[in-house]
Amino acid sequence: GHSEEIVNVIFSKNDLLLATGSFDSTVCIWDTKTGRNIHKLIGHHREISSIQFSSDSNKLLTSSLDGTAKIWDVLTGSCISTLTDHTDEVLDASFSLSGKYIVTASADKTAILYNATTYDIITIFKEHENEITKVMFNPQSTRVITASRDKTIKIWDTETKKCIQTFSEFQNDVFSCSFNYYGDIIITGSKDNNCNIYKQIQS
């Protein structure tokens, strides 16, 4: 198991596996039926900030305060690739449901969109003025949403690579954001103690 606080817990899409991320800089993969620790993923050098399984449950994406994100083979426990393009802590990372993209968010004020097969950079989203705390795709994989300590959230188009909408009604840092299943509603959580719901997203 882990030697320090567990800060991330997530099930695989097929519910057969559970992953845990810890301040001890490791990630553990567990068999949900037996409770057995299948793999301990060692490679990050600082606290784990996020973990996510791919939609086919074959890969695990991890991000860390060491400034990197890693993609792991769930079957073997080996590291497939390390993304080292940020210049500061990586605070979040996400697979697209389509399996086409990976996006990472950093304290360096940028989010990076990658090809999830080649791990090449597609584009760098650069318009935030403070660290990006949360990032995710809509279910259709056509949009990326970023939340930031600059008191805004932004929506980006994965094809044009442009920011198509900015919400700036917040009084403080924005720490969380999520799309609904259809991708036409978003909810945000911020340091001003409010959750905001936006019911119309520009197409």
Please provide a written account of the structure.
It is a single chain. By secondary structure, the chain is mainly β. The protein is built from no helices and 19 strands. The strands form 5 sheets. The protein has a 4-stranded antiparallel beta sheet with strand order 1-2-3-4, with no helix packed on it. Strands 5-6-7-8 form a 4-stranded antiparallel beta sheet, with no helix packed on it. Strand 9 and strand 10 form a beta hairpin. The radius of gyration is 16 Å and the shape is globular.
Question: What fraction of the residues are assigned to beta strands by DSSP?
Answer: over 45%
- Give the C-level CATH assignment of the largest domain: Mainly Beta
For this structure, what is the CATH homologous superfamily of the largest domain?
A: YVTN repeat-like/Quinoprotein amine dehydrogenase
Oligomer: single chain
Number of helices: 0
If you average the pLDDT, what whole number results?
Answer: 95
Q: Helix and strand succession?
A: EEEEEEEEEEEEEEEEEEE
Distance between the termini: 45 Å
Q: Which radius of gyration do the C-alpha atoms yield?
A: 16 Å
Residue windows where pLDDT falls under 50 for at least 5 positions: none
What overall form do the CA principal axes indicate? globular
The helical percent reads: under 10%
CATH topology of the largest domain: Methylamine Dehydrogenase, Chain H
Class based on secondary structure composition and strand pairing: mainly beta
